[in-house]
Structures are given as structure tokens and as C-alpha cells.
Amino acid sequence: MSVVDEVVYAAVLLVWVIVVVKVLTKRIYDRYVSRGVDGKVMVYYNRKIIHILAGGIISLLTPFIFRNPFIILAFSIILTIFSLIPYKTGRLNYWYQVSGNIFDVHFCLMWGLVMFLSKFFLNDWWTGVVPVLFMSVGDAVTGIVRNAFFRKRTKSWWGNLAMLLTCLPIGALLGFKGVFSAFVVSLIERYEYKWVDDNITVPLVSFFILSAFH
């Protein structure tokens, strides 16, 4: 597959992300809020929907479509800018963004950076894809469980248990090292410090663990 082909695929996937973020989740928000669901609850549900349908699906497709890690990095930077602009202009996408909480920007950047590092330095997509799936799918399940229980963004061991049960089969794709990293990130997801949130710690820590075994 040529670089041009990969750029075309990246453009198609970018359109998919825009549809998920700008159309699908907005309709979900408007529909359920009109039925009386708390808007803040729907914001965090939508964030997790984006995690799975955008971050999760595309990261899983990456090893089968792309060879050039710079395309994925560029894709990630574009999405990072796309997510950051509303915070800088004050025109938030209210159905999934919250003032003062730019963790969705961290998600976009780490999504591409970890996969880029894996492919560029280790010549292996999966050492980066698995950590990104921990963040995209595992953390999404965590947030959905917590939101269902507490109706707000908070931390709970129930969420961490849900994350562990989700991440274990994902980590098993890489054997023992993947299972071990699943246990570690399911624990550290509970903790964050100021601007260092789980969208940074989960993919980075699991990537470093898998890289050490690699």
C-alpha cells in the first residue's frame, strides 16, 4: 500500500471521527436531554462513546491499514487541534466538552503518540495499539459504569473492576505482559493529579511496561 493510499484511508477515518463527534453524539445528547436526562450525565456518556467508536475502532484498524507511523501521528495532531480550538475560543461542543476539563484533548494526543512511538521505535503496532485500547475501550467502560452508578464524573473501585474485566482480554492479545499491564493500568486509572489524568497515565504506563518486555 502506497503512502497516498494510506492518506486516503486516514482522510476517510477522519470523516468518520467527525461524524461521530459532530453528528452522532450531538443527536444522542439532544434526544436524551429532551427526555429529562441530566445534561452533565450525557456529556460523560458521549465522551465514552467517542472513546470507543472513534479511538477504539480506528486504533484496532491501524495495524491492518497503515504502515507509516507519521500518518497516524499527523492524524492525532489534527484531532488534538480540532479538540483544543473550542476551549480556546470559548465555543465548546457542549454535548461532550466541559469548561476546564480538556482531558479529551489529552486523549487525542496520546492516542496517536503512543502508537507512533511503538511503530517508529519498535516496528510493532500492537505494543502501542493495546495501550490505546486500554484507554479507548477499558477506560470507556469504567466511565460508563461510574456514570450509571453515580450520575456524575467520579472515581470508584466498581469502575476499576469493570476496566480490569475489559482490559484483561485485550491485554491477553500480547500474552503475559499484556495481562500484567492490564492489572497495572486498571489500578492507576483511579488516580490523577491536576492535568495528568488517566488519558495520559493509562496509555503511557502500559506502553512502557510492554516496551520493557518487548
Short description:
This protein has 214 residues and is mainly alpha-helical.
Task: List the main descriptive attributes of the protein structure presented here.
globular; 79% helix; 8 helices; mainly alpha; 214 residues
How does this model look, in words?
- 79% of the residues lie in helices and 0% in strands.
- It is mostly helical and 214 residues long.
- The protein has one domain.
- The longest helix has 32 residues, at 3-34.
Structural class: mainly alpha
Summed up, the domain count is: 1
* Count of individual helical segments: 8
As a percent range, the share of helical residues equals over 70%
Rounded mean pLDDT score? 92
Number of strand elements:
0
Low-confidence stretches: none
Rg calc: 17 Å
Largest sheet: none
* SSE string: HHHHHHHH
Overall 3D form: globular
- CA-CA gap between termini: 27 Å
How much β-strand is present in the residues? under 5%
How is this fold's topology laid out?
Layout: H1 3-34, H2 39-65, H3 69-89, H4 103-122, H5 126-150, H6 157-171, H7 176-188, H8 198-213
